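Notes from the pairing session

We agreed to fold both candidates in a single pass and log them together. This is the raw record for the first candidate, unedited. Please don't reformat it; downstream parsing expects exactly this layout.

Candidate A
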Amino acid sequence: MKPRFESSLANRAAQVVITLAGLALFLAIRPDIYASVSNRLMSDYQRKVVTPKLISDYMQRSREPKLQVGAGLNNADGWLNSDIEPSATQAYIDITERLPFHDMTLHAILGEQVIEHVTYEEGFRFFREAWRVLAPGGKLRVITPNLLSFVALFSDQKPPAYMARKLDFHYWPADTPDPACFIINGEMRSWGHQFVYTPKMLRASLEKAGFADVRQYAPGVTDDPDFKAVEVRAKTEWKDLNDFDSMAFEATR
């Protein structure tokens, strides 16, 4: 007769095999759940394992650390590129959360077409966090839609070809009876937009967050070569749209 503990061990092993086989069968039957679980595990791994290492390695080798939030496909050389849905080489950073940097450690922060995707309160907290992590003299540059430009669509204060090109750019219907109405609704509600600023509101928010030197620029225009090298929308064939309906602000700590 074999000892009981061997039998018990064999039983447990069999139970594990049966459980795993059942789980595999269930996931094969429900690929949607498999995809959801897989994506969650990958996201957690990216956030908790990959991102801390990416940030640590970058901060150690960079003499003037620069952070790009909401980078998307724009992986700028010399920058720590981040996104809420990061690629394999990007850090996971959610601008509604505390930024994972020590006080006064970054040289520059860039957010191109990002801040409008969060609420006003979340945006203000991000500005406060940016002020905290920037070194004295460090700069934050924000490029975002300008609400005044969309209000101007209801007057004659717009480029003649703007509305047709805007509708074409977003694949919106060209035969809409009121293009201005369609565009402003789209800009306020599409792509997860939460809050679209006027220049007055954005300047006031940055100043309230602690920035002393706040300046407005046209998109793509800057005195800082670091920002000029990484900003992308001002370099595309749709530059004319960006020039009219977006604004850029730089704020110095």
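Candidate B (folded immediately after A)
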Amino acid sequence: MRIGQVFHVFAVVLISGIASEATAQHSSARWIPVTRSELCVTEGSIEQLPGQPLAVNVAKMRAYVNRRTQPVAEARFSYLGPTANEAPLASGEMRRQFGLKLRAQDACNLVYAMWRIEPESKVVVSVKSNPGQHTSAQCSNHGYQNIKPGYSAPVPALRAGDTHTLRAEMNGQGMRVFTDDNLVWQGSVGPGALEFDGPIGVRSDNARLMIDLKTGAPAGPATAASCRGPESE
């Protein structure tokens, strides 16, 4: 066997080991379901009938959990297709997506793990950092940095009616993102992402969704002081 072939085999085994270890660690996590009453919706709306998942039917939805938890979150969601009305991002781009927010201090400072549905299916991790700014009126869509992963894998294209799981975990600067328990993104988000802190949250653009959201164990006070004002990008 040539040296190149040996290296390739070693790389495949190493990556498989990383994914298996990550999945095993997930199985012991303490997950806490999130209900509508525990969400602060800062843009759009989220509905929930008793015993049912969270429902999103608006072009733009932004929300965060009104309690502090560990920086891990999981959403099992059904994608139901595009919203009746669609809205572009602040950049003017039309995008359909759903994602998790970590360390969401406010509209200007947070970490995103986004599953982009259209125009291209992929997972993107971004840090939005705007020191000294706290409202979308101040920062708009500025301060974004898409983070290059150390490891990544493709994700399936989403079709209306599909159900999948999206999970994001941070440990210091290290971050991992899973779809359906498969590791699809792993890397460092950098020290700037630790300069702010906040709760878990969710975001969607132009997608109708049913969502079962869970967070990690509580951290600090059980409930935030109050829901903050509107936020957008």
